[in-house]
């Protein structure tokens, strides 16, 4: 009976099919397939359209032109009076009174100080008395000689008497000359008690006060007088700068005016330009062994006294020329990792990077020594948005926000070369090309 029951049980399992877990896996697989198909359909429905191509950047361009370009050289300079006179006492004595207003312009011959003259008047009086004595003795000697000469001619007196009479007359004449010199000396000393200005110029403050005892031998400086017209302007040129100019002239990159006839303008501390122009009238032939520079002096007419001695100004030297030079806007020149470069625009309006060698600075432009040819077009505004081989859209006029904001924001634009130019000067010189 057990055997029959077991057989019936196995038959019933066979009739029901596979076990329950196998059916669950089959249903789960179909569900996963349906879910994957739904997700694929959903992604296909939400797929975005392809992004449009990037628009060509807008830039402005300029055409490279080669021409003769005037250049200026700028140096730090200082004004100096063309005549700076020390007013000193020439005799010993007491200073009675200052006769001028400190800081005012004094005229030639104007009395500036008055010393006590009474001792000198007395000395003059004494000298005149001694002169009168010697003149009286001369008259006696001459009268005696006049009497002796005819007697000696008649042999009434000896030859010795004649010689003595002649000697007395000559000695008296010499004593008169000496006495006259004493009188002149006394008159000069008396005149020196009135101290006058030898020139027209600006007076300084008095170094000695009324009642002071001054001497001619000690450092009894009374004051200064500065001549204001004309005025000198001194500046120095470094040895490196001179060698650079010489090499550029030899290479035909720089040309000085004939006879070095430069025109000089000066810029005052407030940025204004002095009305008068000047000329270089002196250049020291020797270098200063301490600074490695040599002095150059320009002279300026200063009729209104605008310039004063000791002012620091900027001397702008005009008259030089850079023949067949190329000048481009500074904002078109970018600074790469190793060199400066510009974007050259080809015939298809595509950008090509070009390495250039920059020279001096002139206003807001840069001289290009190497790398560009006349007729080529370069990007000016918008250069920072350009990449190699990129198609460009050339527009007229400045690109909004392209310069100088681009250069300031990125720092890739070349910095203004004022620092590197001034480092070669001057001080300079600041001896930088403007």
Large-scale geometry: elongated
Proper CATH architecture of the largest domain? Beta Barrel
Question: Gap between N and C termini, in Å?
Answer: 125 Å
Helical run tally = 7
Strand content: 25-35%
Let me know the average pLDDT: 82
Protein name: Toluene efflux pump periplasmic linker protein TtgA
GO cellular component, one term: cell envelope
GO molecular function: transmembrane transporter activity
Domain Multidrug resistance protein MdtA-like beta-barrel: 230-318
Description:
The chain has helices spanning 2-16, 20-46, 118-153, 159-192, 239-250, 405-410, 418-423; strands at 58-59, 61-63, 66-81, 84-88, 93-98, 105-106, 111-115, 194-196, 201-203, 213-214, 221-226, 231-238, 263-267, 278-283, 293-300, 312-329, 334-335, 340-345, 351-362, 365-370, 377-379, 393-394, 432-433. It is of the alpha+beta class and 434 residues long. It has four domains: 2-46; 84-226, RNA polymerase II/Efflux pump adaptor protein, barrel-sandwich hybrid domain (OB fold (Dihydrolipoamide Acetyltransferase, E2P)), CATH 2.40.50; 231-320, Efflux pump adaptor protein, beta barrel domain (Elongation Factor Tu (Ef-tu), domain 3, Beta Barrel), CATH 2.40.30.170; 323-433, conserved putative lor/sdh protein from methanococcus maripaludis s2 fold, CATH 2.40.420. The strands form four sheets. It has a six-stranded antiparallel β-barrel. It has a four-stranded antiparallel sheet with strand order 4-11-9-6, with no helix packed on it. Strands 8-7-5-10 form a four-stranded antiparallel sheet. α3 packs antiparallel against α4 (159-192).
